[in-house]
Amino acid sequence: MHRRDLLKLGAATLATGLTPALATTAPEPSSANVEQWGLFEIALPGPSTGNPYQEVSLTASFTLEHRTVQVTGFYDGEGTYRIRFMPDALGHWTYTTASSAPQLANKTGAFTCTAPTTPGNHGPVIVRHEFHFQHADGTPYFPFGTTTYAYFFTSDDNARASIEGLKPHFNKTRACVLPKPLGGDKEKQILPFPRANGTNDLTRFNPAYFQLLEKRLLELQRANIQADVILFHPYDAWGYKSMPAEADDFYLRYAIARLSAFRNVWWSIANEYDLVKSKTMSDWDRFFRITAAEDPYSHLRSIHHSGPIYDNTKPWVTHASLQRYDFENTAERRLAWRKPIIYDEMQYEGDIDRRWGNLSGEEMLRRFWLAIVNGAYGSHGEVFFSATGEASSADAGQLRGDSPSRIAFLHALVEKLTTTGLNAPESPYYLNAGTPGQLYLYYFDYHRPSRYDFPLPTTANFRATLIDPWNMTTTPVPGTHSGKSRITLPNKPYQAIVFEKISDNHNPHTEAAKPEVLD
Amino acid sequence: MHRRDLLKLGAATLATGLTPALATTAPEPSSANVEQWGLFEIALPGPSTGNPYQEVSLTASFTLEHRTVQVTGFYDGEGTYRIRFMPDALGHWTYTTASSAPQLANKTGAFTCTAPTTPGNHGPVIVRHEFHFQHADGTPYFPFGTTTYAYFFTSDDNARASIEGLKPHFNKTRACVLPKPLGGDKEKQILPFPRANGTNDLTRFNPAYFQLLEKRLLELQRANIQADVILFHPYDAWGYKSMPAEADDFYLRYAIARLSAFRNVWWSIANEYDLVKSKTMSDWDRFFRITAAEDPYSHLRSIHHSGPIYDNTKPWVTHASLQRYDFENTAERRLAWRKPIIYDEMQYEGDIDRRWGNLSGEEMLRRFWLAIVNGAYGSHGEVFFSATGEASSADAGQLRGDSPSRIAFLHALVEKLTTTGLNAPESPYYLNAGTPGQLYLYYFDYHRPSRYDFPLPTTANFRATLIDPWNMTTTPVPGTHSGKSRITLPNKPYQAIVFEKISDNHNPHTEAAKPEVLD
């Protein structure tokens, strides 16, 4: 194998981005080291005649000791084929290619998977503790995401502004693979399929489109932001939402072959799936099944709705991605689905005329807290009229709202309080979540009691801290607390308090808390 | 008939209150004038031995031309029997009594019913325009009420403080006939039945209890406050919530005989009926039927719940009295019941630890507006920890919250805008209520669009006024508006705007509003 056939996308090359030019600067395969959950890429020259996207098959088998992982390659245009692989275990991996084209078949090589050194590389996010998430290396991960639908195909300026706003505030964003019309001439946008005179060629792809997407995906990865990659959506100007099933599947397999080796990918099968009127439920099921089969790494899989919620009990769904803000139904949904729940659209902070697009920062923050104390998660989004009077619909660009810093404050608080996630008791009198006997995070929402007798267990001593979610202050309550504990509260709405266990109470003399009354 | 046998409670005597002493100062029956919807009372001496409450029957037939109205009298203690009558039509009325006691039978007399002169006497409140109310003389009446459960049996000081707070802010209050424990020695409270050594005599009444109640009822009447008289409730310390059915009915008939001639009475069969565990649905139905049969004036009848809502389609229910704040279900309820809806408990403004008792003034006001723009009504209540740390549960006394003046502002606005009540369109994009083609009152709740294209009809011209419900300001929008009308809005939550028709638009050149999108 020639040195130019191999591209290693480890820490060093990630830092400079994924560009075709980089493919020629990779080290010798024999000395290749790839960090765990980094991206190992093989580039091979191959047939460029006919339709290489459809007529040439290419796979590779990667082997570590007794394990073999088969991955699918893809045609990247201009006679270049690529195979990408994300190693999940340390050690010496070897590979062999297989192809319908003799030129691409039986290529072999090896690399060593080393411990990660890239800051923030904790591996992909997976489901843990039933209703929560975690990185593959065990690092806690709590999704506090936002929404940038057009991020993958927006301008470099917008993308840069997006990253600047996202990096300090969010660790996940939702973004579409297929384009949305951006307001200008829709025929001048960069598009994923060749298009001439208003007609799509759905049998081929435009590699430049996907290369741009991958550049953006790496920008997110460097900013420690998970990409909730939306595979289908209804916001279409070119006919992509109503392609024939063969084209849907062809596109889906190609996207998965290109993207699944990026560790920060989550699969969102669709945004507002039920607004894509040309497809049926069996289409959505099939997309899930193709995604589960084609992705060797089992990235997270969900589907986002507008009206009817997809049946999240189906086995290929890893977590629920909801467009709702009826948090009072969270417990019922957790019981029904036994999976994590992210309220991925709780309406948007903004000022536009549509009723989903004009929350105050305070109301957006309130919904984040309600999600958290119900044992779930929320996602942010914003949409403001631009200076020219047109709305920017949660696409990409500079953040203008007031909630992101307060959401980041809540995120930091959750990270400080727990490694496994917060769970809510059954029918709490006032909303709270935590770990029984250890931790109780209360959020009072519109309630503003001037005092409350908190029903703490008598078996432990707790410290208490008042939290003002909007002003981002924490105020320790003097003393320690055990059993029924009366605390004077600020007597204003939207306040919180947390009780953290500091020691066991082996000889409880304190008054036991009575069961709370369900007046 | 002796002059002392007759008491006329017209404007002059009402002004000094209803006390036994007044019974001797009434004018000659032959010259008696009673204003329409005033209270005409006959007092007769009769048997005081045995149990006059149970052993003596007493009725009177009041006749005006072709009409005869039969009413039931009651024993008021110390050998005095009374018959009360509220004349609803002008003219010369005559009456004849009937009784099992010869001493009370066949008494006759007459009076002239004259046009009302007492300020605020517009007759009882009745249902009109299907979902709304009106006084009997056609004067519009929109319920903006509060809650003073213990008002009828509270101290004079508390009652005076209540009236001072209620009079400028509210035109209705909910108050219990049967007592609630007030926090002191429950055996020292004034009680409706004789009680000795902790044992009730449920075969007799304590007239002084009802006389106090009637004094309070007249205080409300003079303040133009409708009394939503609660006949049964679960907040009991003496066994009144679990009396035998015969005692329930005996009490109910007695209360109706005493109170129904007061024009400001509404019947609330119960508060939180479903928390009175000793009674069944057929008991509540029977109470309704007794009330409908015994009250000659058909005062409004409702029943208030805690959990399950009573079947408000039953024919004896005049309007729904709900303990809910799910205003989004109002349209469905209006369609189902075809009756006015009052959200009589939407939680309380206050600062106590129970979750129903610590709304901010802002949240209480918000719920009033939500009730109104859904075509319904709300009721206020407040409960604060007192200086001594004990809660005053919406009983009676000084108002301490921030919402009453803002509720009165809304009340004045509604009175200015409509005579027949506000109705909401089917599935509005933003909440609004009014009269199609004439009036649109929008309330944006948590939405804060910086502008909106209001879909006004093109057939009329409207003036627009921005309303800040909390700061109680109204700001006219320059110009007139017709058809699709873009208005710049304050871009903060909880704002309102009203469009009032000022003229027809016979040659509409304005752009027709498109049907609103249900994004």
TrEMBL record, chains A, B:
UniProt domain DUF5605: residue ranges: 433-497
Keyword Signal assigned: yes
One Pfam family named in its UniProt record: DUF5605
Domain Apiosidase-like catalytic: 132-378
InterPro entries with a match to the protein in the record: Apiosidase-like_cat_dom (IPR025277), DUF5060 (IPR032260), DUF5605 (IPR041239), GH (IPR017853), Ig-like_fold (IPR013783), TAT_signal (IPR006311)
Domain DUF5060 residue range list: 33-99
Signal peptide: 1-23
Keywords: Signal
Protein name in the entry: DUF5060 domain-containing protein
Organism: Edaphobacter acidisoli
